[in-house]
Specification:
The chain is mainly alpha-helical. It has 3 helices and no strands. It starts with a helix and ends with a helix. InterPro entries: Bac_export_3, FliQ.
């Protein structure tokens, strides 16, 4: 197995992992900023106030993007399994 093949597989895996986690992370980031602005405006310094909206956004984005995430993982896994003979043979 060549270094280039391992490097390509690793790059693809990292790209897929980032693509799959991005909707939830971006949603939590936006909700965190909104809650922080709300806390700054109202001067409410409750630390637990940000957890429930973030959890709701993460669960909502997981429900909305679950089919796309499943399709992306399935496609990546299928391509990875199909490419095993070529990678092992060094072609």
């Amino acid at each position: 197995m060549e270094f280039d093949a391992v490097s390509d597989i690793t790059n693809q895996a990292i790209k897929v992992a980032l693509m799959i986690s991005a909707p939830m992370l971006i949603g939590a980031l936006v909700m965190g900023i909104v809650v922080s602005i709300f806390q700054a405006v109202t001067q409410i310094n409750e630390q637990t106030l940000s957890f429930i909206p973030k959890i709701l956004v993460i669960v909502g984005s997981l429900i909305i993007f679950a089919p796309w995430m499943s399709d992306t993982l399935t496609t990546f896994t299928r391509e990875l399994i199909i490419s095993i003979p070529n990678v092992v043979a060094g072609r």
